[in-house]
Amino acid sequence: MEMYRSKLVTAEEAVKVVKSGDWVRYGYSFTKPTALDMELAKRKDELYDVNIHCATCMRKFYTVEADPTTTHFRYNSGHMTGPERQLHDQGLCYYVPSQFGQSPDWFRMGYSKVNVAMLSVTPMDKHVYFNFGPQATFVKAVCDMAEKVIVEINPSMPKALGGFEECIHISEVDMIVEDPRADNPLPDIQAAPVSPEDAKIAEYIIEEIPNGACIQLGIGGVPRAVGEMIAKSDLKDLGVHSEMLVESMMTMYEAGKITGRYKTLDPGKIVYSFGLGSKKFWEWIDNNPALACCPVRYTNYPQYVMANDNAISINNGLEVDLTGQVCSESKGTRMISGSGGQLEFAFGSFFSRGGKSFLCMHSTYTKKGGRASRIVPTLTPGAVVTTPRPVVHYLVTEYGKVILKGKSEWQRAELIISIAHPDFRDDLIKEAQKLGIWRRTAKIE
N or C: lower Cβ tally within 10 Å for the chain? Predict the structure, then answer.
């Protein structure tokens, strides 16, 4: 095709459009390019104050490694992974606070500058579209607002059917790069192992899920445990409307538990905005018409979440205080992940007819060889409140589940301490007394 050939350039030539002071957007997760990042890194001494943005990225950053001073390249992430967390700890990465569902709007409203979009995409199809793979998120919004759009062809990228805003037409692309360095199979990410605590938490949640429910799952051992238990349960005709597509959803689908029959919005479709999983998972996504990859504005906005009856939202927390404030993204001031869509799904699921939101955590964690409680009198200084206390519905640990909606401070303290690890309950009661939120008549079973 003549248009394709006219836009075909080398990675070295493509990165010449970047100027000092530019914001370069790599999209989301696996749309981060490889060859383009490598070639941009080589221009370090020519450029100053170039901001690079991505999120949930697991690829190597050649630009960041090329400039440990951050004078030339500065990396910004909307959601931390392990590699990004390491960069953040070294002062080489800055977090972008966000409500994930709003992110496409930032770009379209001009709040987030986009000079150059550089994206890894599938090869062009017969309809002359490039697919973004299993991460529609905010990628099309980035392209719509970019001064220049450069796509890097990854023959190994799975094609994620829409939905909408999952692809871009060749007419919207300025440059196309074909480079052997860009052929990168998505990593084989194995699901987190299920611990005894995860399994117990999942048991409490399964009791609350009716037939025909519409499920949202986050990442980690609890979602995996929930999915595996559902696959072996008598539950049926479940639907999925989720920010993230996870391995356990494939498990439930293959067990015949997901049909989407009773979904009001997108019946029969598994709706998601991005996915993470194993090689088998990527193969399941590729060209699968049962799945619909959509922008995160659609998956996460509460009005869309609540449109399906019996919306069930299941997410993780890192720490909760005695009034119900939940931190799910930082340990003090140290960023661990990001806000994601937890708050949006907590809102949306509660307003869904029959809906429920579950925030889950192990009661303790290992700290310098000892054990510390995730239930604390007050959050660690600097901790981010991911889900405010009025929004929390169900709180779950391996010691039980409690409903915080409509509860006074003293009721919350009693309920939350009741699902703390027994070794920490007495101290938590003493701290609650100091805070003035404990009644002498309160009882912990």
Answer: C
Domain 2-182: state its class.
alpha beta
**Runs of H (alpha helix) within 255-408:** 279-285, 296-300, 302-305, 342-351
pLDDT digits (tens, 9 = 90+) for 19-51: 999 999 999 999 999 999 999 999 999 999 999
Residue 147: active-site member:
no
Residue 219 is predicted with a pLDDT of: 84
Dihedral of CA atoms 34, 35, 40, 42 in degrees, nearest 10, equals: 120
> Running DSSP on this structure, what letter comes out for residue 5?
H
Contact 251, 235 (CB under 8 A): no
Domain with CATH 3.40.1080.10 in the chain: 2-182
**Terminus-to-terminus CA distance in the chain, angstroms?**
72
Q: Any alpha helices (H) in 262-421, and if so which ranges?
A: 279-285, 296-300, 302-305, 342-351, 409-418
CB-neighbour burial class of residue 422 (10 A; exposed 0-12, middle 13-18, buried 19+):
exposed
Query: Looking at this protein, which amino acid is placed at residue 386?
Result: T
CATH topology of domain 196-435: Glutaconate Coenzyme A-transferase (3.40.1080)
Strands 326-327 and 319-321, sheet pairing: antiparallel
Catalytic-labelled residue, pool 166, 197, 243, 414: 243
Residue 322 pLDDT exceeds 60: yes
pLDDT in tens, 44-89: 999 999 999 999 999 999 999 999 999 999 999 999 999 999 999 9
Tell me what pLDDT residue 223 has: 87
Q: Is the pTM of this model over 0.85?
A: yes
Taking alpha carbons only, the member of 120, 39, 43, 26 closest to residue 77 is 26
